[in-house]
Amino acid sequence: MKLLLTSSGLADQLSCDALAALSGRPLVDQRVAVVPTAANVVEGDKGWLLANYVDVQRAGFAALDIVDVSALEPAVWRPRLWSADVLVVTGGDTTHLLRWLRRSGLADDLPALLRDRVYVGISAGSMVTGPHVRLSQSIQVEPDDSRGLGLVDFLIVPHLDSPWFPAPADGAVRAAVAGLAQRTFALADGAAVVVSGADVRVVGTGRHLDLMGGRVGGR
C-alpha cells in the first residue's frame, strides 16, 4: 500500500516529487480523483479547499476529477475512482468524512483500490487513515466516530505551528499523545509522511515531530 499523508496537500514540488516516486511514473501520465466530502460541513470561507484544488491542478496530472461520495450513488462514484491512478482525500471535518467513507462503501473499497493506486491525504484525509482519530478537533461523542480506517498503524496531527490552527502547538501535541500507544507524526504545512509498504518516512520542508511514549524525534 502506498500513501502520501500531508498536512496541506500537494503544495510544493517536494510533495509532487514524492508522489511521482511512489507511483513510479510522471504525474502527467496519471489521472487523479479528488474526494472533497470532508469539507461539506465546514462553515465559512473555502479558500483553503480551492487552494488544494489549484495545487492538484498545478501538479500536472493528465486529468482531474472531483468525486463527492456523499452526493453520488456507488454506481456513479465507483467507476470514476477505479479509473483514477491517484486518490486525493481533502481536509475538513474528520467525523463527517469517516461517516461518509463508511456509509458510501468507499471505506470497504479502499484496500482493493490501493493495491495499485496511491492515496494522498490532506489534513482530515490523512488523519482518517490511522487506527483512530481521537486527536481530531472535530470528533463528536459517538464511540464509532473515533475509529479510523486502519490503513496505517500510526496517527497524523496536521498543521503543527500553524497560526490558523492553534491547537496543534508543540506542547499541546506532546500532551495529547502522552497517553496513546500509537506512534504519532505531527506535521507542519509542508511536511508529509510517505508510506510504501513497510517503509515510512517524512519528507518536505516543514517541521515535524515523531512521538511515541517517551521517545521524541523530528525537526
What is the topological layout?
Elements: E1 2-6, H1 13-23, E2 31-35, H2 47-58, E3 63-66, H3 74-82, E4 86-89, H4 94-104, H5 106-113, E5 118-122, H6 124-127, E6 155-157, H7 170-177, E7 184-187, E8 191-196, E9 199-204, E10 208-212, E11 215-218
Parallel strand pairs: 1-5, 2-3, 2-4, 4-5, 6-7
Antiparallel strand pairs: 1-8, 7-10, 8-9, 10-11
General description of the model:
By secondary structure, the protein is α/β, with parallel strands linked by helices. It is built from seven helices and eleven strands. It has helices at 13-23, 47-58, 74-82, 94-104, 106-113, 124-127, 170-177; strands at residues 2-6, 31-35, 63-66, 86-89, 118-122, 155-157, 184-187, 191-196, 199-204, 208-212, 215-218. The strands form two sheets. The chain has a seven-stranded mixed β-sheet with strand order 3-2-4-5-1-8-9. A four-stranded mixed β-sheet has the order 6-7-10-11, with helices on one face. Helix 7 links the parallel strand 6 and strand 7. The longest helix is centred in the first third of the chain and has 12 residues, at 47-58. It is globular and about 45 Å long. The mean pLDDT is 89.
